[in-house]
């Protein structure tokens, strides 16, 4: 479990704001944690909840003990008065917020204190957002709501106005890389995780997952197919790619890995070799810089970003990838 001290190394401003609100007893009834993926929003929300429920907290301290029953149950994900709301499918629905409102009417199982963490708040349906708004307009003194989002612009202004906003800034690639290196993640993999802003826990899991190793191999194979007019990129897409990248988060990661490769090719064209992420692919980058111009590489990056947007708007993965392969095919 991350500590405040560890979080402060990468998010000093957000950490200081949260700790000060605890020490000065100025805890808001609702917070909005906003910022890019992998910047510590979820960790901060759990730390905040842990401190709120901690049974051994010292007066004037913002640090939970990490040892009491409440702290341990939050770490294991089974505290009865901490409720986590996540999207069901592609959205957070009205009934989920209705459940939240219903829970608010009950006394806490162990005290009157309650904490609710709403993940991916930008994915609320209109009905869910309106229901949450009514819910926030009548705050309980001992109840805290924490909304987490990567896209604050997609959250209703009326909801934003009722939350204290805490911004989580993008991590510097070098700082994130150093964190992964300390955990023993291989250098080439650590560079990828840092470039994609993958958080430490997720990265450690991926680095030990054979699925990710295979994903990296398949990405390079697809590039070889589309760069060679004699190869069947379309056939490879259906026989291999689509079978491996099935879930939405896997599809997005596959696109991100392709983006890294083409961004590295652009860096190679511009003689910015120090910016290359996929350092184990330098031979291929040197080979393919003669097959694809700088302008064409930039066009490929544009097509990849468009594909990411299509997936975000629920365009069918197969259709989106078929179009992408046709655009990348040399």
TrEMBL record:
<dbReference type="InterPro" id="IPR027417">
    <property type="entry name" value="P-loop_NTPase"/>
</dbReference>
<dbReference type="InterPro" id="IPR004622">
    <property type="entry name" value="DNA_pol_HolB"/>
</dbReference>
<dbReference type="InterPro" id="IPR050238">
    <property type="entry name" value="DNA_Rep/Repair_Clamp_Loader"/>
</dbReference>
<protein>
    <submittedName>
        <fullName>DNA polymerase III subunit delta</fullName>
    </submittedName>
</protein>
<dbReference type="Pfam" id="PF13177">
    <property type="entry name" value="DNA_pol3_delta2"/>
</dbReference>
């Amino acid at each position: 479990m991350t500590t405040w001290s560890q979080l402060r190394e990468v998010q000093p401003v957000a950490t200081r704001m949260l700790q000060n609100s605890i020490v000065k007893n100025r805890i808001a009834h609702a917070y909005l944690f906003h910022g890019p993926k992998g910047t510590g929003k979820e960790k901060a929300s759990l730390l905040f909840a842990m401190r709120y429920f901690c049974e051994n907290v010292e007066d004037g301290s913002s640090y939970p003990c990490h040892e009491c029953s409440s702290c341990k149950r939050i770490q294991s994900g089974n505290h009865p008065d901490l409720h986590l709301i996540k999207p069901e499918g592609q959205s957070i629905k009205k009934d989920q917020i209705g459940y939240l409102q219903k829970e608010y009417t009950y006394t806490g199982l162990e005290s009157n204190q309650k904490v609710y963490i709403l993940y991916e708040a930008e994915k609320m349906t209109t009905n869910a957002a309106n229901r949450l708004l009514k819910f926030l307009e009548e705050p309980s003194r001992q109840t805290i709501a924490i909304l987490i989002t990567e896209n604050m612009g997609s959250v209703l202004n009326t909801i934003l106005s009722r939350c204290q906003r805490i911004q989580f800034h993008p991590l510097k690639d070098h700082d994130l890389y150093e964190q992964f290196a300390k955990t023993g993640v291989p250098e080439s993999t650590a560079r990828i995780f840092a470039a994609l802003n993958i958080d430490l826990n997720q990265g450690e899991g991926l680095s030990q997952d054979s699925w990710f190793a295979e994903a990296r191999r398949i990405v390079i194979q697809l590039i070889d197919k589309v760069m060679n007019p004699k190869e069947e990129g379309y056939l490879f897409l259906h026989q291999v790619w689509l079978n491996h990248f099935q879930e939405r988060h896997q599809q997005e990661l596959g696109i991100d890995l392709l983006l890294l490769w083409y961004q590295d090719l652009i860096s190679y064209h511009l003689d910015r070799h120090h910016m290359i992420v996929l350092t184990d692919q330098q031979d291929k980058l040197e080979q393919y810089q003669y097959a694809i111009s700088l302008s064409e590489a930039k066009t490929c990056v544009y097509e990849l970003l468009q594909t990411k947007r299509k997936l975000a708007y629920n365009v069918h993965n197969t259709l989106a990838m078929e179009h992408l392969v046709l655009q990348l095919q040399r």
